[in-house]
Amino acid sequence: MSAKKTIAVWAIEQDQLAEAEQIFKLLSNSVRLKMLKLLEKKSLNVSQLANSLQLEQSAVSHQLAILRQHQLVVAQRQGKANFYHLDDPHIIDIIDEGLAHADHVIRGKFHGQ
Q1: Which of 1, 34, 48, 78 is found 20 to 30 A from 17 (Cα to Cα)?
Q2: What is the model's pTM?
Q3: 86 Ramachandran zone, left/alpha/beta (phi>0; psi -120 to 50)
Q4: Residue 72 · residue 36 · CB < 8 Å
């Protein structure tokens, strides 16, 4: 009689799956990707981000609020301004991997080429 092998199924918790889906939706916006990459280097205030991205401050503030809601950035008051920095620096790893994959696709290369 042959022994049946039990296959372990890795299950993702529903709340984790829902939050991961939201994070990937957040990362599907080029403005937010650029903001996160800028904040990888140093803390910036809304005005500095707006200038770098050539956007209105209100648009930048709106995007920062969304990123804060999902704990990707955090604000720290310095004088009269809030300076934003990454709250979860490993999000840059996800972004960089996505950009590297995009580069492979654009160049028509396969992984490892």
Answers
A1: 34
A2: 0.82
A3: beta
A4: yes
